[in-house]
Protein: Kinesin motor domain-containing protein
Amino acid sequence: MPSETVSVRVVAKCRPLTQDEQEKGGNSVITLNGEKVKVNCAGKESLFSLDGTFGPEQTNKHVYEGAVKSLLQGAIDGYNVSIMAFGATGSGKSHLMNGSEEDPGIIPILTQNLFRHIRERNNKEFMVTVSHVEILDEKMTDLLN
Structure:
């Protein structure tokens, strides 16, 4: 992965409405159209063009396959790989990254695939380092400590 091809890709994963939001009669303010996200909040529309979009019906596995899986080869080749989730409290970042038993997050999926690739290359030595941090209110917390 030569440095000329390294780039930042931005994708959006739109979560479904929570049960509480549904019970209160809430409606989604997001419309996905290809790689575009339209946000209609209180009659004000904003349109964003991204590198990819994933709707509320898509699982974390879909996000992994479509946006993260291609980063694995770079990591195996020795390049640093970063995956970041941004959003407001309650927007689904933790579920996307960590997941649940029914819908594993992209971190467990990536970890399983990384170590599977390492096992398959038993003639090479690998050193894996991982950071899992949360930045909230300008305070960084090491989530692995």
In short: The chain has a mean pLDDT of 89.
